[in-house]
Structures are given as C-alpha cells and as structure tokens.
Design brief:
By secondary structure, this protein is mainly α. It is built from 13 helices and no strands.
Amino acid sequence: MNTTALLIGLGPLLGWGLYPTIASKIGGRPVNQILGSTIGTLIFALIYAWTQGIAFPSGMNLWFSILSGIGWASAQIVTFKVFTMVGSSRAMPITTAFQLLGASLWGVFALGDWPGATDKVLGGLALVGIIIGAWLTVWSEHKDAGNARTLRQAVIWLAVGEIGYWAYSAAPQATSIGGEEAFVPQAIGMVIVSIVYALFLASRGEKLALAEGVSYTHIISGFFFAFAALTYLISAQPNMNGLATGFILSQTSVVLATLTGIWFLGQKKTTKEMWVTIGGLVLIIAAAAVTVTI
C-alpha cells in the first residue's frame, strides 16, 4: 500500500469521525438531520464534479450509483434514530461492527479482496479484533435493566440498517466507473430518500422538515460526511486500497466519533468504562493497522 492510498483511506477518519457529533450537536429530529446532511452532500458533490470536470454517468452505472445513495440514506435514518436512544458514542461502535461484517466480507468473498489464504486469516483476525474493540466501547460498569433493554433495541435497529450500508458500499462495485464519477448520483439518491421521508412524516401529522430552519443548518454536517464519502469511494477502488481494506480504514472514524461524543455531547462514562472504552478503541486501531499490511 502506497502513502497516497493510505492518506486517502484515512480521510473518513476526520469526516465521519466528526459527522455524528456535529449532527447531534446541531440537534433537531432525525428527519432534519438526514435532510440537511444529504443536501450538504449533494452541494459538495456538485461543486467537486464541476471543478474536476467529471462527467455524469448513464445507464446502469447511474442507477447503481443512485441505489448506493438510497441505501446509505435509509440506513442513516435508522442510525440517527438510535442516536436519540443511546447516544452517538454508543451507537457508532455498534454500527461500525455491523458495517465491517457486511461490507468487508462482501469485498473478500464476492470481489476478491484479500486473495491469499494468509491475507484472509489476517483480515479475519483484524475483523474479530475490531468487533471486540467495538463491544468494549459499549461496556457498562453498572448494569441497568432499562438501559440494557434500550441497548438491545438499538442493536436490532442497527442490524436492520446494515442492509442499507451494505448497499451503499457494494452497489458501486457493480459499476464500471470510479468513486468520483459515482459521487453525484449517490448524493441524488440520498436526497430522494430524505425528501420522501420528510413528506411521509408530514403526511402522518409531523411538522414538514423542509420548512424547518434546523434542517438547513445540517448542511454543515453534510459537508463533513461528503468529504469522508468521497475519500472512501476513491479508497475502495481496486487500484487503491480495495473495498475490504478501504472500508476498515474508514471505520477508524469510530475512534473520533466516540471520543467527541463523550467530550462534547455529555455522553458520560465512569472512570472504569472510559478505560475499557479506550482499550477498545486501541484494539480497533491496531486491528485496522493489520489490514494495511495485507
């Protein structure tokens, strides 16, 4: 792996690491968060495509790219809902584990990443390490039946949402274009989902998110997501890091997301919980580093 590929692969560490904390800090309902985030992503994508002279795809390349965006937005709606249940510092490690299982295993078995037997063993051990690390970050010193029940519900919601995240990562691999060309249609798919979701909730008596100012404040968080998404899409291409390694590198963002959630959003932990969380985050980083050698 060359230095350029590694730096691009770590781009999501900053973008996705700060994105959930910024979105939670701005506040509003999940529909406000997803609407503003997707609009911000589309603005970012259009500006990038225009400045780089990137052509708009057509045919199946276009439709698979839009499907990818629809998958992400659908899953992110679920994730925002879980933020309101257990907080971003607990939700992010859980969703990281599910996403690693879904997208990375798809990359290995369907797309041929980690081709050798040794590669698969090392990659598999790295996945196990990341999953254990994610579990450690949600460990609780004081067991509470109500909190445990809420956490179980959150895990179920995130497991369902993984279907969308899997589509987000896997669909672009079925195209003959690069991540940069897929970026704009992906953002279009995201916006379509967020608008449909907002209209659906309005039809059920909730306030129309399109008419709320907080929705447009979330455009700021969308810029952070878009930066991460672009660098991830480039990183996941076969001539860069590949889907499996690229995805695992991107998920090191859970470290920043977890710590900023604790520090800036008041998602408190006891001293012992904090040490266990730090241990889990170190394990995640160490396991991700293993994949760089594959």
